Amino acid sequence: MQNLNIQTKRLKIRHLELSDLSDFYLYRSNPEVTKYQGFDVMTLEQAKIFIAENSTKHFGIEGEWVQYGIENIDTKQLIGDCAIKLDSYDKRIAEIGITISHLEQRKGFAKEVLQGILTFLFETKEIHRVVEIVDVENIASINLLKSIGFRQEGHFIENIFFKGKWGSEFQYAMLKREWEKNK
Q1: Of 156, 113, 119, whose CA–CA distance to 134 is shortest?
Q2: What separation in angstroms does the CA of 171 have from each of 112, 150, 157?
C-alpha cells in the first residue's frame, strides 16, 4: 500500500515517523491541546508506541483511524497531526480530526490542513461525505468547520463520558457537492 502524502502551500500531510517523536510528544503531552480531544495527555513512551503502531496503518481500511503527521515544509518540523477514518459500512463516508501544536495555533494551519484533506478525499478519492464530531465547548474548531462550509447536523447532549465528566458534542458534515459549490 502507498503512504499518504498531501501537500499544501505550507504543509505536508504524511505518515508519522519515529523521528517525529520529540515534536509529537511536545504537544500531545500538553493538557490544553488535548482538552477537547478523544485522547488524554501522553507519556513519552505512549507517544512512541502510538507512532510505531500507526506506521503499519494505511489509508483505505474501513473502520480504522489512521493518524498522519502535519509537517511545516519550511522548518521540517511536525506541527500537528490529523486522522482519517473511512466508515465501517460505506467507505464513501469519512470522518476526520485535526490536532495542532499549541506553538503553532492561530496561524491558519488547521484551515490549510482541513482544505488539503477535503481536496484529497473529495477530488482524489471520490468520497461522498465527510463528518467531524466536535466538543460543544471547542469554539475554535466549530468556527473553523463553519468557515469552510461544514453544516451542523446533530447535537448530542451528554453522550460521552469524557475525562471524568459527561460531555456533549456536535456533528458537522459536508457532502462532495457542497465542497464543489463552495470552493
Answers
A1: 156
A2: 21, 10, 11
